[in-house]
Amino acid sequence: MNISTQAAQIGLDWDTRTGAVTVPIYQTATFRHHGLGQSTGYDYSRSGNPTRQALEEGIARLDGGARGFAFASGMAAIANLLLLFKRGDHLIVTEDLYGGTYRLFEKIFSQYDLSFTYVDTSDLEAVRNAIRPETRALFVESLTNPLLKVADIASLSALCRERRIHCIVDNTFLTPYLLRPFDLGADITVYSASKYLSGHNDTVAGLAVVKDPILAETVYFNQNSVGAVLGPQDSWLTIRGMKTLAIRLDRQQKNARRIAEWLHSHARVHKVFYPGLPEHPGHELLKKQARGFGAMIAFEVDDHSLVERLLMRTKVISFAESLGGVESLITFPEGQTHADIEPEIRARLGINNVLLRLSVGIEDSDDLIADLAQAFE
């Protein structure tokens, strides 16, 4: 069954008693037992809630994994996955990743003697050379944030299998509608579901999916023990958003391609980062391993003075830090989403004072281009 159909039907058959086509919001902390030693399968909502379970089963089905897990945020999802590792373990990580993930690794988990090496994960040999005897996982963004480099998930997964380490893919920018990392050999996927999956800029959520059933039991133990779970209301909102994932992303990608082409031809744009453009170095690879190119664009203008003008003068496009919703958003990574990364590292990676990141929404593309055009004037 096509992923768009599966997404639209998440939770459809959940309430067989009433036939509700939308999974109910089970807004309860605890569940009554029918007798001593008897359980309905639900005891306390930290351990399991029917609304959250409908979401967890839904994302597992879309990704093709054994089990899904819903957390209070994308950061909570990643933090719970790091609990799979112990003191002295080493992870290889995408170098130009989301600043919040970098902060979690370097400011929090490094205190517990986990170590991280940051490499260009679009370079297979760089990853291979970074592996140590104590390496336990590769953490890779399928499309990097914000420079949109493309990782060869199939080759990286094969390398991880060869070296017996986990391949963890943050697939937030592409979602299972465009890319299924498990089909390419990955072991774990993780999402900030606040973004494209929920899709309406109205909830904060994180999801993870595990391919191996035995490893999934460990992830569940950690999820239940730590308790950073997604509440039933936000689980329901995420399900509601996922039902329209396919049609939203189809429109967003179409808009993004038009805007990227327009930016590419603009006299005051120095560089455009969008894998849907044929000149992007990852274009052919992403065309081979994914169903589309996503709806994120990064671009450099020719002078820093243009940055504030574009941020403050756009009217249809909002100056805001998130991404993936139906509304188009623009942000300045150096000063916002990636501010926690050291300045010298940002400079080396190209996260500079003329770089802007655009999350393209579902508005009319002519209106979005006209909005950018008037802001440039």
Written description of the protein model:
37% of the residues lie in helices and 15% in strands. The chain has 377 residues and is α/β, with parallel strands linked by helices. It folds into two domains: 3-242, Aspartate Aminotransferase, domain 2 (3-Layer(aba) Sandwich), CATH 3.40.640; 245-376, Aspartate Aminotransferase, domain 1. The protein has a seven-stranded mixed β-sheet with strand order 1-7-6-5-4-2-3, with helices on both faces. The protein has a five-stranded mixed β-sheet with strand order 8-9-12-11-10, with helices on one face. Helix 12 crosses helix 14. The longest helix has 20 residues, at 245-264. It is globular, with a radius of gyration of 21 Å. The model has no long low-confidence stretch (mean pLDDT 95).
